[in-house]
Amino acid sequence: MLESQLPILIVLLALGTFAKLATVHTDSEPGALTRLGPAVLVPGPLRKPALVCCAVGELALAAGLLLTTHPLFRWGTVVFFALSTYVLLELRRRRPDAGCGCFGEVSSTPVGVRSIARTVMLTGMALMSVWAPLPGMSGVSWWTLAGVVVLAVLSPELEEAVDRIRYRAPCEQRPSVESVGLAKLKASSTWRSHADELLSAEPYDSWRELCWRFFVFANREKDDVVFAVYLTGRHPVVRMAVVGRDDTDSMPEYTAVSA
Amino acid sequence: MCILLSSGGKSGELCDARGVNSTERRRILAAAALGRDAGHPGPDPEGGDPLRAVSGQIVDVSPHLIIIDTEQGVEERLVIAPWATAWHGVDLAPGDLPIGATVVIRALRDGKVAERIWADITRMTGAILSVEGRRDLHVELDCGPHRGRRSVLIPYRTTGRLRVRHPQLEPGYLFDAIGIRDEGVGHALLPATSQPGHPARAVPTPPPAYGGAQQRISGTATWSDAFDCDERGAAYPMVERSDAACPDAEVSCVGLPYLAIGSLLHIRNVCTERAANMPIVACGCMAGRFCDRCVECGTSPRGRIVELSASSFVELGGELTKGCFNARVGLG
After folding, report:
1. Rounded to a whole number, what is the distance in Å from the CA of A162 to chain B's nearest CA?
2. Out of A76-85, A98-107, A156-165, which region has the weakest mean confidence (pLDDT)?
C-alpha cells in the first residue's frame, strides 16, 4: 500500500514539467507569464527562468522516484509539495487574481481552496511513499485508483479543459497560421484547376478577415487572382475571383466555388 | 501611414503598390472573391449635417475669419462661427490663437464654418519606460513597434492633475495624456484616461465567447496623432501579427474578431449618433493594451476597440480634449 501512490506522483511531476516547459515555449502573447503561478512573485526578467527551474526540479524528482529508492528523492518530493502548499497560500494572499500555473497555462484559474487541498493531499502521498519498499511504477493497485479519483475531484484544470472543449471560441477569434491556410488552398480542387495560370505559386499578398484568409497571385495576363479560404474544416470552402489590375470596383470576371 | 510588409515573401509598401492604394485594393479583391459589396469609406448620411475636419497651419486669424495653410499647400479660409471656441492648452477665444500654430478645426457647411479649433494638440499614449525629474517630470514612452519612443514633459503645474489619474507613474505601466506640442516636445496637460491598473504587458484576457461572435462590439474609440496629417482611418488591435508585421498585435481585453489592414469598419459614435465607414490603416497594438472605459456619455464597456486619426475622430463628433467616445463597431 505504501508504494501505491508513487506512480501518481511520478506521472504528475512529469506532466507538470512538460506543461510548464510548453507554456514557456509558447509564450507567444507578451505578458502571459505575468498571470501564472509562483512566477508572478518574482521580478519580470526572472519569471521564465523561475518556471524552467521549477520544471527541471520536478523532472529530477520524477526520475529519482522512478529509478531509485534513495531517500533524497523521496524526502525531496515531500519538501517540494510542502513548499508548493506554502507558495500557493502566499500566492492566494498576495495575488488573488493569478492562477497556480501548476500545469502551465491550463491552470490559469485563480488559486482556490481546491488547489491548496490538492497540494496538501500530494504532500501526504509523498510522505506515505517515503517508506515504500519498491521504486517506480510497480505499486499500481486499487489504492492508486482511489488516489487518482481524489486528485481529479480536487483539480480545477479538468473543469477548465471541459469548458474549453464545450465553449470553443468562434473561428473569427481563433488565431490561425498563414501557412496552414496556404496548404489548405493548395489541397483544394479550385487551386488545381487554376494553378497553371499563375505566374508564381507563392502569393504576393495575404491577409485574414474574420474566418477567411485571402491570398493574391498574379496570372499571366498580369491580373490579380484572389483566393479566399475558409479557416475551419479539413476541406474548407475556397472561393476565387480574377480582378483586372485597373479595376477599381469589384467586377470579377468569373467566380468559382468549391467545397 | 505606410506599413512595410516583410513576412512570407511579401515585400513593398502596403500603401503604394502599383500606384493604387493597397488597403483599398484589398477591400476590392476581398469583395470580388466573396461576391459582396466592397462598401465605401465615408460618413453615414443619417447623422445630420456632416462635420469636416480641416487641419493645417494658421496663416492669419481674426475673431471672424481664420486662414490656414493645409498639408497639400492649399490656403483655406474659414468663417469662425459666433459660438466657436478654441483650445491651446487652455480654452480661449479663436482670435487669440497664435499665428503659425498647427490646428485641427471641426467645420460645418462643407468645411467653411469653423466651430471648434484645437491648436498644437498632441496625444501621448504609450508604456512608461522611465520617469525622471523632481519638479518637471520627463517621461520616456514606448509607443509601440511602429511609433517608436517618445519623450514627454509633464510641467510641474500639471503633475498633480496627471498623477491623480495615473497613480502608477512608473516604468511598465501605461500612460495616456493630452497636451500641446511646443518646439517639438510634447507637454502633457490633461490626463486622457484613468490609468488601467494592470501593467502594459499584463493585459487581462477577454471573457470567453459563448455562441459565436457578435455583429457589433461596444467599447471605447480614442484618437492618436501618429497618423499622417489629414489621414482618415483607424488602427485596430486584432490584426494577425504576420499580416501587419506588428509583433505586439493580437492583444485586447475585448473579444475582438480578426480583421486586416484594409478591412472596412463601421464605427458609430454612440454619444452623438454619427457613424462612418472607415478603413483599418494601421495596427492598433498600443490601443489594445488599454483596458479602460470611456465615460463621455454613460460608461462604456471595457477596452479600446479602435484608435482613430484626429480628423476621423473629429468628423465622428469626438472632442479631442476629452480623448474618447463610446463607440459601437462592426464590419462595414
Report:
1. 13
2. A98-107
Looking at chain A from residue 37 to 66, which residues have their Cβ under 8 Å from any Cβ of chain B? Answer: 44
Number of H helices, E strands in chain B: 5, 18
DSSP H helices in chain B: 22-34, 156-165, 241-244, 285-288, 310-315
ipTM value? 0.82
Please name the member of B34, B203, B213 whose beta carbon is closest to the beta carbon of A170: B213
**Cα–Cα distances in Å, from A213 out to A177, A190, B179, B261?**
10, 15, 41, 13
pTM of the full structure:
0.74
C-alpha to C-alpha distance for B160 and A198, rounded to whole angstroms: 63
Q: Distance between CA B144 and CA A230 in Å, rounded?
A: 31
* pLDDT number for residue A94: 79
Nearest by CB to B202, from A31, A108, A250: name it: A31
Beta strands per DSSP E along chain A: 205-209, 212-218, 224-230, 238-243, 255-258
Q: Return the number of other C-beta atoms located less than 10 Å from residue B44's C-beta.
A: 15
* Phi and psi at residue A141, to the nearest 5°: -155, -175
Residues B246, B286: Cα–Cα separation, whole Å: 11
Contacts of B100 (CB under 8 A, 6+ apart): B57, B58
For chain A, helix, strand, coil in percent to 5 are 55, 15, 30
φ and ψ of A63, to 5 deg: -65, -40
- Which residues, in sequence order, are CB contacts of A210 under 8 Å at separation 6+? A171, A172, B213, B257, B258, B259, B331
* B8, B236, B255 from B11: Cα distances, Å: 9, 22, 30
Judged on CB neighbours under 10 Å (0-12, 13-18, 19+), B95 is middle
The full DSSP string for A102-164 is TTGGG--SBP-HHHHHHHHHHHHHHHHHTT-SS-GGGG-SHHHHHHHHHHHHT-HHHHHHHHH
Mean pLDDT of chain A: 80
Among A29, A210, A216, whose Cβ lies nearest the Cβ of B29? A216
Could you give the residue ranges of the DSSP H alpha helices within B207-331?
Answer: 241-244, 285-288, 310-315
Residue B178's H or E segment, with its range, is strand B174-182
Number of H helices, E strands in chain A: 8, 5
- pLDDT at residue A27 above 60? no
**Phi, then psi, of A218 in degrees rounded to 5:** -105, 140
- Region at B14 (left for phi over 0; alpha for psi -120 to 50; beta for the rest): alpha
Which runs of E-coded beta strand occur in B28-173? 42-43, 52-61, 65-70, 75-87, 91-92, 102-108, 113-119, 121-132, 137-142, 149-154
Highest averaged pLDDT of the listed ranges A74-83, A138-147, A196-205, B246-255: A74-83
Which cell numbers in the block locate residue A99?
492562477
Q: What is the dihedral of CA B176, B181, B182, B184, to 10 degrees?
A: 100
State the average pLDDT over residues A172-199. Answer: 85
